[in-house]
Amino acid sequence: MATTNVDPAELAKFEALASRWWDPDSEFKPLHDLNPVRMRFIDSHINVAGLKVADIGCGGGILTETLAKRGGQVTGIDMTDAPLKVAQLHALEQGLEGIEYRQMTAEQLAEEAPGQFDVITCMEMLEHVPDPSSVMSAIRTLLKPGGKAFFSTINRNPKAFLFAIVGAEYVMNLLPKGTHEYQKFIRPSELSSAAREAGLTVREFKGMTYNPLTKAFRLSSDVSVNYLMATEKAD
């Protein structure tokens, strides 16, 4: 699975848009809007300052940079070449140290660095790979005992289809058409089951709801569309 848990069609989507990754008004506006909410969730569970952090599926580095600004020693990995180059250039322009970007899968990193990370983030990524459970197992391998892993993805139900695909891609044009495939969305029950099977203890679920009037996301108890999960590797 180390080299096969990749969907070339999914990679191509993000390769084509790489140059616009850091434009907050581009197709990546939702990621920019989600980032403070995701970081607020992480902050509520752990202070990453001085810790070794891996950002799995880092893309152009939006969350990766925020983790580094919090004081984390961050390794950002992704299988897309162009977004990684964008991430490296942007970090250089920002004068950010403490970030290492590498083109590899979670499974490959797990083979290389088992038990080396205090914190792992895997945001808006599992719905883009053929086997999410393989990524989950790799993350468990990468964590130190007591380490924490954070995930975000999209629920699979009629409301999520309406909001995340019809609304976001076809009505409000927040995302390019075809960004998501409904059958790849993951129910919270499925995500928590995969976490437990991988040896991770689920600590919390939180929803991320979008207000079209204020055009902002916030944390909520509603996990029906976008949601986050916090987990921990047992000692």
From TrEMBL:
Q: Where does S-adenosyl-L-methionine bind?
A: R38, G57, D78, M123
Q: Check the record and name the Pfam families matching this protein.
A: Methyltransf_23
Q: What class of enzyme is it?
A: transferase
**What Gene Ontology terms describe what this protein does at the molecular function level?**
2-polyprenyl-6-hydroxyphenol methylase activity; 3-demethylubiquinol 3-O-methyltransferase activity; polyprenyldihydroxybenzoate methyltransferase activity
Transferase in keyword set = yes
Give the EC number(s) under which this enzyme is classified: 2.1.1.222, 2.1.1.64
Q: In which pathway does it act?
A: Cofactor biosynthesis; ubiquinone biosynthesis
Can you supply a Gene Ontology BP term from the record? methylation
Q: Which UniProt keywords apply?
A: Methyltransferase, S-adenosyl-L-methionine, Transferase, Ubiquinone, Ubiquinone biosynthesis
**Stored InterPro entries:** SAM-dependent_MTases_sf, UbiG_MeTrfase
Q: Which reaction does it catalyse?
A: a 3-demethylubiquinol + S-adenosyl-L-methionine = a ubiquinol + S-adenosyl-L-homocysteine + H(+); a 3-(all-trans-polyprenyl)benzene-1,2-diol + S-adenosyl-L-methionine = a 2-methoxy-6-(all-trans-polyprenyl)phenol + S-adenosyl-L-homocysteine + H(+)
Described function: O-methyltransferase that catalyzes the 2 O-methylation steps in the ubiquinone biosynthetic pathway.
State the similarity comment.
Belongs to the methyltransferase superfamily. UbiG/COQ3 family.
Name of the protein in its database record: Ubiquinone biosynthesis O-methyltransferase
